[in-house]
User: Fold these one by one.
Assistant:
Number 1:
Amino acid sequence: QSTWGLLIENGKVGELPLEVGSVCVLTSYIAYWPNLRQYDQTMNEKIESSLPGLNLASYRLDFLRTAQRWMKRKQDDDRVSPYWRIHNSVYDLRSFIDKHPGGREWIEVTQGTDITEAFESHHLREEMVKSKLKEFYISEINFPRNSPYTFEHDGFYKVLKKRVADVIAHEKPTNLVKNIHNLLLLLYFTTMLFGVYFSSFSLCLLAGIILAFVLNCSHNFFHQADSWRRFAFDLSFASSYEWRITHALSHHLFSNTILDYEIAMLEPFVDAFPNPNKSAFLRFGIIFHAVPALIVGLCVDFVKRIISIFILREQKIRFEYTFIIIHLIFCGIFSETFLSGLQKWSLIHFTSNFVFTVVGLFAAHHHERLFHDGDTFTPTDWGLCQLSAVTDRVETHGITALGVMIFGDHYLHHMFPTVDHSLLPIVEPVFDQTCAEFGVKVRLKSGLSLAVGFFKTAARIKPQTVRLD
């Protein structure tokens, strides 16, 4: 029987009760039945990675994919619970959760998993961190990691990482990014308040666009140690807590692979992998059936969050989850009727969702010449694998003010996510030097070519060999 047949027969979608599962399946079939039928036929094929060493991505078997389920399945796949794995060593960090300088969340949510990629990319001065880790060491481990990546001391990433650490050792982030964030927040609240109070369609539309830039800029901060600025991301349908998992721990560390949650969340609307069984509708109808995904993408996350809290009970209500509801109440109170307030609230958030999603999809990852799981890429160095799956736009490269609003300086940000965007331009020279020494060529793309490349990627069915020379 097909996956969908089993789900319907058992009255479940993942672990959903009959009523909710039936509604999910029925709604999905009505809206996107061609994609779902094709998705059902090829789902099992997508679980296998073309990168040797990446053997498991169990979360892809779940119909309802959430941040909590991604992490739970990774715990199952990594098999180190209740500890933490770094390379081939196991540590018990439970007593360190509240002492972690970056905030307890980073340690708490990763319990029971292999955190090698996160450890390497989040700690530039790893000698100091390793000396602290010795206090929590338990033992070595005798089975291979569920990861295709290596971090050799004389490899591209470790050499570049040491140089970057030396460059910024005595540098402090400037206030540029914070000032841009402050300005965007001021502009958003001003246009939103006036738009709601004066029932201005134009101002509400503008508020939605500005909110998208607020989210993009806030993204700089939820990669870093805890601060109030990360919670500006929660002014939308999105959650900074969940995106730390799905974006920082999944997408950033396993870009364009079967472990990349942001690839999975496009499905079944968009299949970014080179799959020879893609239907013509899935390949060439994307310009039509991807539009609903662009408009409601973050809204779907919001609905899944409600299901996760109240039905599956996978997580508790966090205080920042109330921001979006408080905004709805505000719009209702300061409008002629609650329905009018709901319309303004919807306009703001669906506009924000559309702009944020379009900017993200066309930013850096889905040019047709970039690696997508199914392709062949021979090097195993994590930094080189990152460069095979990410590029940057000519128009925003090196311009911090633009970069923080529309995901610029992307390959440097991917390899050093905790480094503030204001510092990325000063590490560009050592990046260029390291690329030259290792024979690596990074080719920037225009924004237009990345946008066109997204549609070519969705239509691509033949695997390719990706090279960086």
Number 2:
Amino acid sequence: ANYMVTFRGLWPGDEDEAENNDDDDNIIWSSMLGVSHSSDYHMFSLGWNPSKGIRSMVQNGDTRGLEDEIRIQKKKTIRSVAKTRQLFDISDDTITTISTDKERHLFS
């Protein structure tokens, strides 16, 4: 099966002003990655230390390391990889598609 996934930016803006002195024009959503996979694949889990790829994506918005980690696992447990574009308008939408099959029907 194929699914279309929409990420909708719902940035509240003013709620974080006390903590975030950045101008809203400088805030972006990084590219996002998702994978359809079997129950044997775990991108992350509560209590685990994040991989270098996850850490780089969270801290710098750089998805390349995580994409490399996913490619290593792909042959075994992953059906497809979906990547969105960056959102420079934090209230915009981005759409991607993901494919699943009988064995790899979970999405992370």
Number 3:
Amino acid sequence: SSGINAEYGKGLTDYGKPVVGSDEESSWTTGIDWVQETLECCGITNKFDWSREAGDAEWWIATTGGNHVADVPESCCMVPEDGCGANKAIKENAVNIFEDACFIVGKDWVFEKGLIMGACGIVFVVLEVLNIIFALVLRRASVSA
């Protein structure tokens, strides 16, 4: 789990940084936004990962980069709209943004989906075994006829 946390941290470092030579956001930015919006979470360990004090979102908070010293991304907002994350990386202003840490919510989401996939796999194996038994019964019936 620390490897996943480290990779997500790399994405946080360059969050918001445009792709060189284009107006597009990096795939990290798009991915982190998708995770935060879909799983309704904010930051890796908490919503304050976006703050200057945490220092994780280097480009996001840099005055030569995103210059979002006290902001969280709009994907952290319960109702995403322009400017909704302004000054929300400060404890006193941290309202109407998702509370849960994305690492924990994401881990739970993957575990839940894994259980569903595992159950589907078991059902598939059982159906295949029944199919083999049925084929053997048919073969035996055709040989004896």
Number 4:
Amino acid sequence: MRFFAAVAAIAASASVSQAFYVPGVSPLNLQEGDTLRVKVNKLTSQQAVIPYPFYKFRQWVPPTEVIKKERKKENLGEKLWGDQIEPSLYEVSMKKNVTCRKVCDETIKYSEVDMAVLKN
């Protein structure tokens, strides 16, 4: 009798628990205060067919050594879809609420050509 009760309890708990797995993504355990670097992708537009690389328009670019160290290797599917995963200057600290943080002190001035592309 105890055996059947144990089997019934295990079966009942198994149906209540849920889990999921995203292929190619390994779980990451982060603690309070751990930093997580934010990655950026391509810039897309509703009017442009081809996406632009994120750093095409002279945003603040991380140093070259950071880009080489953190750049993700692209697989064939990412190449075909035009994904261009790049490191950024943005960071997130776990369980720390930050409303606003300055990334850079420079002011960016865009040329007329860049502005025409950005408007389209």
